[in-house]
Design goal:
The complex is a heterodimer of chains A (about 525) and B (about 325).
Chain A lengths: L1 H29 L10 H5 L2 H15 L2 E5 H10 L5 H8 L12 H16 L3 E5 L3 E2 L2 E2 L6 E7 L2 H10 L2 E3 L15 E5 L3 H6 L9 E5 L5 E5 L6 E3 L2 E3 L13 H6 L2 E4 L2 E4 L5 E4 L1 E8 L3 H4 L1 H6 L4 E6 L1 E3 L2 H29 L4 H15 L2 H14 L14 H30 L2 H8 L4 H19 L1 H6 L6 H6 L8 H7 L3 H29 L11
Antiparallel strand pairs in A: 1-5, 2-5, 3-4, 6-11, 7-8, 8-9, 9-10, 12-17, 13-14, 15-16
Helix pairs in contact in A: 1-7, 1-21, 4-5, 5-6, 12-13, 12-15, 13-15, 14-15, 15-17, 17-21, 20-21
Chain B lengths: L1 H7 L3 H4 L7 H4 L9 H11 L1 H23 L22 H8 L16 H36 L1 H14 L4 H11 L4 H10 L2 H16 L2 H8 L4 H37 L9 H7 L1 H5 L4 H28 L7
Helix pairs in contact in B: 4-16, 5-7, 5-16, 7-8, 7-10, 7-11, 7-13, 7-14, 7-16, 9-10, 11-13, 13-14, 13-16, 14-16
Classes of the chains: A alpha+beta (about 525), B mainly alpha (about 325).
Chain lengths: ~525, ~325
Amino acid sequence: MGKYVVKRLLHGLFSIVMVILIVMILVYGLMDRQKIFKTDPQYTKVTNNARTTYMYQRWEEYGYLDYLPFNDYLNDLARSGEITEETRAAASSIGKADDGSDDSETTAEFVKRFYDYAASNGYTVRRLGAVVSKNRIVTGGQQALFAYKEKNVLVRLWNYFTGILEFDNIHKVPETQDIGKRGLTFTLYDPVKQAENGGKKVFSPAIIGNGTTHKYLLYFDSSFPFIHQNFVNIHLGTSFTVTRGVEVFSSMTQGQGAYVQQPLTYPTGLSEQSADNLHTATYIAGSRDANVMYQQRYEDDYTNVNTYKNNMSRMGYSFVIGIISTVMVYILALPLGVLMARYKEGILDKIGTVYIMFISAVPSLAYIFIFKGIGRAIGLPWTFDMDNVTKAMYILPIVSLALPSIASMMKWMRRYMIDQMNSDYVKFARSGGMSETEIFFKHVMKVSAIPIIQGIPGSLLFAMTGALITERVYLVPGAGGLLIDAINQYDNAVIVGVTLFYAVLSVLSLILGDVLMAMVDPRISFTDKSR
Amino acid sequence: MEDFAKKYNMTDAELFTQIDKDELESEKITAPRYSYWKSVFRVFFRKKINIIVLTILAVVVLFAYIYPSVIGYDDQVDPYLYVNETGVQHLTPTAAFARHGASLKWIFGSGRTGASTFNAIWNGSRISISLALICAAINMTIGIMLGAVWGFSRRMDMIMNEVYNILGNIPSTLFISVMVMVFSPSFWTLVFAMTVMGWLGIAYYIRTRVIIIRDHEYNLASRCLGTSIFKIATKNILPFMTSVIVLEIAAAIPGYISSEVFLSYIGLGMSEVSLGRLIYEAQQAMVTPGWGWEFWTPVAVASVITVVLYVTGQNLGDASDPRTHM
């Protein structure tokens, strides 16, 4: 069994890599990259050459290409000590002509070196001459010199997969930074816990790092799953437009809504009402010196913290709604399907069939609106209000999510049971004198439930991803809309990240389903050689 | 025989006529005439509900395909006829009758631009149904042909299962939306986007059915007798699949209408004013008192169309299963 599962996992991994490859070709290769500027207000403000350079900067940020301006190239040379600061300054001002005919001697030399560097590294150089009108350079018409290189899709794929897991260690902070002694310290009394409890001594073990990206590498707190670690972090990509600058996975799991403030004592001893979660502190070089607020609060450069918010994360909302409706589906649909099969052609069977037909045929959007209309008519809250969450708000989304799944599960349960009723073992049991009810509940039901059991891991895992239409119709701030939002806002990193997340879930749920099925049904064996 | 002759007082010659022995006739097996498609329709029309459903379907087709051309509906002109008039937008049917006079055109009231909702719905229905039919035709043709080959060839099975595992994990919403963005959001783009990957699921389904039937004894016997694979596929297996295929089509056509509505709703649909676009554009009207007509009527028509198509297909599928022809 173990060997089989490992084989399936490796197989799944291959599928996932191929899926990401195709999605990367789709979003980076096929999609018109000009479209990212369609809703960009900054794009309309810049003109002429400034617009061109702006476009290349944006494309680099979105991950389409590597962009290297001439000045960055010179800065790199100066930083590595190859040229002096004076030479850099002298070389940096390029001439107005696009063929370099009016460059100074030093500049011309470095421009030539820039061209050579670009040619040997696969870059394409673009030189834009100044846009002059009536002897004056027009707005945004400054001359520009830069090089760019399209990212190779396989290199992109390799970089993406090698960057997914981030291992934190004490050499993460650049060695040039003087941060005192690097290392990990273990404490039984987590300082953040003391700070949040007004200085009282509270027992709570934690591992604190110096030189790591995260300050707290292991700690306990009161939020799920209670024990947290930062040694390994998942990095699916950084969002660009949907939730600016936030990692894709965090944007699904981060709290939403208004800040929750509580009395907090900062490391410097300053006490105030704050929503900061000091456990999430990460390192930003030089941040303490740059900001007076940080100087009053922190003793080191671990100043970047998340905040406590009063609402659940996107995934939290999706999961609560998804899991309740999944449980509802199993509790309601299985007995209903069984009863439909037991009393075939009866009144329940007929009503059930009509209902199944309604759900299968009518567009999902239409029946969700119909449920919403009915809910509104009987006085249920019909939109989600994050500022004022009540239990009643969950009712309509849960019901709308559950009702269609109930139909399909009823359909399959009924189908499986009726198929089993004609099999030989049922005829044998009947000839042995067992009652119809006995055969039905003791034998047929057990056998018919096996294909249903296979689907359980999938329905539990996919409860996390959220339901797109339901969440949109009821304005639930869940994870379901993330992919659509990302598509609409051309947020390539989020598209790739969310697809990866979905693909992993689907591979896992298939494998878990098969394992579960083999566990409940002794006839199914994956180790058998004859397979 | 003697008794008969005595009882009726007739001779043998009067009672019986001699029939000549016919060599040719004696070779024929006497059985009721059986024609497959005739039986399909006999079983189909035995159910009263099917006649009702077919009538509704005929009405839908009439309104969606013939009515717009009879009234000369032009989707570039008609939706904007009343844009510059005031007090004609969002009318209920009674208000529309009062404003424009009672006619068929206004029985659903008027919409956002003041144009007739009734006309817009049928024009939209034509677009949505056409999209569904074209997509179903393309996907079914490719899906069935490839699915049959996939089921027969073991080497192809290995390759195609891999392809299926990979392509099946690409979110179809993402794929369709990228296609819509790469090309223009038009009718034919959507057809292209929905058919590039749409056949895969059908092919997989057909492949599974073919594998089940392929190894039945009668096919083994047939192969032993030297029947070619092509003949086995078309003569031995295809008849078995007819009802399965009809059932698939029955589920697929409403499915495409459903996806079109969904894609329009999330803003990735086509530029033509289909049923989905109508629902999407009238969304705000749902919660505004008095504007309900322009939202609920397209929803209702979309539901009726899909239900009618689904029921027709399901029952036709049942009727095309020879086991029901008793």
